[in-house]
Amino acid sequence: MPASKILMITGDFTEDYETMVPFQTLLACGYTVDAVCPGKKAGDTVATAIHDFEGDQTYSEKRGHNFTLNATFESVRAEDYDALVIPGGRAPEYLRLNADVIKSVRHFFDAGKPVAAICHGAQLLAAAGVLKGRTCSAYPACRPEVELAGGIYADISITDAVADGNLVTAPAWPAHPSWLRQFMAVLDAAALLETTAA
């Protein structure tokens, strides 16, 4: 049933897998995905970082690929999209300082549209003030931000994801199969509801 148009908001040092894998998977499944970054245009790239779990107290970080954006943030309108994807990595910590990014994130929640966020993507959700009373997973170090924003932190396995209505979240890239499966189920349910209403 893919027909949904999805906006992905990302930025420099976004997590490599958490950007590349959902972008390519959703395209392969027939969805339209526009990847944007404030201050950059279609054809520009963002640097990615590879976060890995190698037995240390937190993840390790290495330089990843360059990810090519296929749309221009300043030209897109959140209202034209059916869903939002927020990858993790370092990008959310600075993207949350951008008022236009915050406004875009709030639009998807105000409109009840599907939203998928993973790992540090919860930092952007917390800054947008959309987590009050919502269950949200994230990288464990982001738990205080989820809770300070009024969210209910989902303490789940690194390979699991959790859905709370239109919001699907996961702790990190090892959860991709569960996270993307749950997100696509929410996307398809939203598309079916829209078709039925029309």
UniProtKB/TrEMBL annotation:
UniProt signal peptide: none
Presence of keyword Protease: yes
Root EC class: hydrolase
Domain of life: Bacteria
GO BP of this protein: proteolysis
EC number(s) reported in the record: 3.2.-.-
InterPro entries registered for this protein in UniProt: C56_PfpI-like, Class_I_gatase-like, DJ-1/PfpI
Domain DJ-1/PfpI: 5-184
Keywords: Glycosidase, Hydrolase, Protease
GO MF term (any one): peptidase activity
This protein's record includes keyword Signal: no
Matches recorded under SUPFAM superfamilies: Class I glutamine amidotransferase-like
Annotated family: Belongs to the peptidase C56 family.
PANTHER family: DJ-1 PROTEIN, DJ-1_THIJ_PFPI FAMILY PROTEIN
Protein name in the entry: DJ-1/PfpI family protein
Species, as recorded: Rhizobium fabae
Lineage summary: Bacteria, Pseudomonadati, Pseudomonadota, Alphaproteobacteria, Hyphomicrobiales
